[in-house]
Amino acid sequence: MLNLFSLRGLPWISGTDGQEKVVLSATEVASLRSEITDLEEREAHLKAQLEHLDEILRSARLSGYLYLRTRWATLPGEPPPLDDAEVDDWLPRFVVLQGSCIFLYLASTDLSPQDSTLLSDVVEVGRLPNLTREDEEIRYCFFILTRHGLRYECSTASDVQVDVWLEALQIDCKLGSESKAVDDSRET
């Protein structure tokens, strides 16, 4: 059993029965027990993350990684926002459409979301112009606007993924003809 651990520097001795044995001090035994406890806790945490991710994937209507940035609508009397077209503030997020909410996770293995929005608060969804990154990769974009003035701008490398998200959001948010159609502002 001890051969499974790579315990360098421990004093190995040959026993009278021909087997090698290791002699440990009480401090070394306590240290090993502490390491084993830490590993068991880490294993339990990883299992919880895996079970949570499994539950999300089973119960979610739609989920996946999207690049995301948030913008707030300007309030009356505020100066117009600066042109931020040159600012690359897109962050990858694991986005989940589940039940009556949109959940935003930093990573798919996170146990709790970083942010969430009720679908009933969504007033508009639609396409945004495509982005071309420095490496010539095209990102297809769309937005989700809430009644509070918060606008989630989302992008992905897949145009089909944008269509799927927009269709699901329009149906789940019951936007219908009020929202921009999936094909309205498509740019080639």
Automatic annotation (TrEMBL):
InterPro entries in alphabetical order: PH-like_dom_sf (IPR011993), PH_domain (IPR001849)
Keyword rRNA processing tagged: no
Name of the molecule in the record: PH domain-containing protein
Gene3D superfamilies per record: Pleckstrin-homology domain (PH domain)/Phosphotyrosine-binding domain (PTB)
Location of the PH domain: 59-174
Lineage of the organism: Eukaryota, Viridiplantae, Streptophyta, Embryophyta, Tracheophyta
Entry coiled-coil feature ranges: 29-56
UniProtKB keywords: Coiled coil
PROSITE patterns recorded: PH_DOMAIN
